[in-house]
Amino acid sequence: MDSILVRGGGPLKGQIPIAGAKNACLTLMPATLLSEEPLTLTNAPRLSDIKTMTALLGSLGAEVTSLQDGKVLAMSSHNINNHTADYDIVRKMRASILVLGPMLARDGHAIVSLPGGCAIGARPVDLHLKALEALGAELDLKDGYVHAKAPKGLRGGTINFDFASVGATENALMAATLAKGTTVINNAAREPEIVDLAECLRKMGAQIEGEGTSTITIQGVDRLGGATHPVVTDRIELGTYMLAPAICGGQVELLGGRINLVQAFCEKLDAAGISVSESANGLTVKRNGGDIKAVDVTTEPFPGFPTDLQAQMMALLCTANGTSVLEEKIFENRFMHAPELIRMGANIDVQGGVATVKGVKRLKGAPVMATDLRASVSLILAGLAADGETKVSRVYHLDRGYEHVVAKLSAVGADIERVKDT
Ligand code: UD1
């Protein structure tokens, strides 16, 4: 197993290119199951989660060819010969549930393993299932699998989400493109990844209106065709690397970044005293040596502050001047990075879904352990400005969501390397 070694330093200077969004790619890939014609994604990120989705689609009979060192994924689902998504793959990645809606919509039947719990909370799929039932699916839960049927095809319907779930909106949106009649999704998630999915589906021939708002209307069509689509910029990778100069000082340009992807996050950076400006090539983040100001953060569905940036923001606030309160409203157990940051000298008190962070002058390097994807990168960020060396172990979490993290941070002057554990 590998670890990452980070030695504190700074300031950072230079450019970091931002990849295509993991979470967009993980929903665009299953969209291939909706059509017999090829779907090609460009600007795909090179990540282990993408390999897991490639394996899952392959197990169903889809062909996924990785071109240009993984930046292009050429997919074809003309020969789907298995409609069961097996537990062995699904348990590795919750996004696997996104094959359910497309398979059911196209062929009228699908069996998908329930994803089970994960480190950051229970994460049930009840909203996915209710949405498909509203489109006429007959569902049966047996032996840890969802058995879904729609012998006469799905039909349009009204879906009212109690909570604006990202994945459930994506599953419903994909399924509705091939349902007979009109589907209205109320309280739909508004994340940029959903807008990206709708744009891709529209290129394939789907009729969709309202993506990016809380109400999405889909007029079902008989069949979808092929398309080529660039994956939207990864706003979480963007926000993560914006925090590197914010924590270490310096000036870094994030190539491909746009403010509208990270508006709520930029407002908090501004309140903390970090300047962000947009140029033709991306976003430039600058910290001029002044103190970080404490800020309060509450995670919310888009356009609110993203839960996927909460751990990284906490790393910044550990050395702020004053006390910050971070409230996690999306996942019930998403402060596992806090005990690790405390090992590095942070002063954090967690009570349920609220973490109170009292800023300290400096963090100190320490051996720490990654517990999930975003927690792992928050520890790297913390290590970038800590005195001495930080060793982050269990970095397989990191490989799920960040490509070339060592190369990207080294290029702007960070002292970071990947080592094999002995
Ligand atoms: C997606 C992202 C993830 C991000 C999250 C919230 C992908 C692959 N992952 O996850 O990185 O952190 O959005 O922005 O895109 N819930 C239910 N029932 C359901 C579905 C969800 O109770 O059927 C709950 C979850 O347990 C969680 C909350 O709703 O507490 C948010 O989940 P959701 O928006 O569905 O997130 P994901 O799509 O899983």
TrEMBL record:
<comment type="similarity">
    <text>Belongs to the EPSP synthase family. MurA subfamily.</text>
</comment>
<dbReference type="GO" id="GO:0005737">
    <property type="term" value="C:cytoplasm"/>
</dbReference>
<feature type="binding site">
    <location>
        <begin position="123"/>
        <end position="127"/>
    </location>
    <ligand>
        <name>UDP-N-acetyl-alpha-D-glucosamine</name>
    </ligand>
</feature>
<comment type="function">
    <text>Cell wall formation. Adds enolpyruvyl to UDP-N-acetylglucosamine.</text>
</comment>
<dbReference type="GO" id="GO:0008360">
    <property type="term" value="P:regulation of cell shape"/>
</dbReference>
<dbReference type="Pfam" id="PF00275">
    <property type="entry name" value="EPSP_synthase"/>
</dbReference>
<keyword id="KW-0133">Cell shape</keyword>
<feature type="active site" description="Proton donor">
    <location>
        <position position="118"/>
    </location>
</feature>
<feature type="binding site">
    <location>
        <position position="330"/>
    </location>
    <ligand>
        <name>UDP-N-acetyl-alpha-D-glucosamine</name>
    </ligand>
</feature>
<dbReference type="InterPro" id="IPR005750">
    <property type="entry name" value="UDP_GlcNAc_COvinyl_MurA"/>
</dbReference>
<protein>
    <recommendedName>
        <fullName>UDP-N-acetylglucosamine 1-carboxyvinyltransferase</fullName>
        <ecNumber>2.5.1.7</ecNumber>
    </recommendedName>
</protein>
<feature type="domain" description="Enolpyruvate transferase">
    <location>
        <begin position="6"/>
        <end position="409"/>
    </location>
</feature>
<feature type="binding site">
    <location>
        <position position="308"/>
    </location>
    <ligand>
        <name>UDP-N-acetyl-alpha-D-glucosamine</name>
    </ligand>
</feature>
<dbReference type="InterPro" id="IPR050068">
    <property type="entry name" value="MurA_subfamily"/>
</dbReference>
<feature type="modified residue" description="2-(S-cysteinyl)pyruvic acid O-phosphothioketal">
    <location>
        <position position="118"/>
    </location>
</feature>
<dbReference type="GO" id="GO:0009252">
    <property type="term" value="P:peptidoglycan biosynthetic process"/>
</dbReference>
<keyword id="KW-0670">Pyruvate</keyword>
<dbReference type="InterPro" id="IPR036968">
    <property type="entry name" value="Enolpyruvate_Tfrase_sf"/>
</dbReference>
<dbReference type="GO" id="GO:0019277">
    <property type="term" value="P:UDP-N-acetylgalactosamine biosynthetic process"/>
</dbReference>
<dbReference type="GO" id="GO:0008760">
    <property type="term" value="F:UDP-N-acetylglucosamine 1-carboxyvinyltransferase activity"/>
</dbReference>
<keyword id="KW-0963">Cytoplasm</keyword>
<dbReference type="GO" id="GO:0071555">
    <property type="term" value="P:cell wall organization"/>
</dbReference>
<keyword id="KW-0131">Cell cycle</keyword>
<keyword id="KW-0573">Peptidoglycan synthesis</keyword>
<comment type="pathway">
    <text>Cell wall biogenesis; peptidoglycan biosynthesis.</text>
</comment>
<dbReference type="InterPro" id="IPR001986">
    <property type="entry name" value="Enolpyruvate_Tfrase_dom"/>
</dbReference>
<keyword id="KW-0808">Transferase</keyword>
<dbReference type="GO" id="GO:0051301">
    <property type="term" value="P:cell division"/>
</dbReference>
<keyword id="KW-0961">Cell wall biogenesis/degradation</keyword>
<feature type="binding site">
    <location>
        <begin position="22"/>
        <end position="23"/>
    </location>
    <ligand>
        <name>phosphoenolpyruvate</name>
    </ligand>
</feature>
<dbReference type="InterPro" id="IPR013792">
    <property type="entry name" value="RNA3'P_cycl/enolpyr_Trfase_a/b"/>
</dbReference>
<keyword id="KW-0132">Cell division</keyword>
<feature type="binding site">
    <location>
        <position position="94"/>
    </location>
    <ligand>
        <name>UDP-N-acetyl-alpha-D-glucosamine</name>
    </ligand>
</feature>
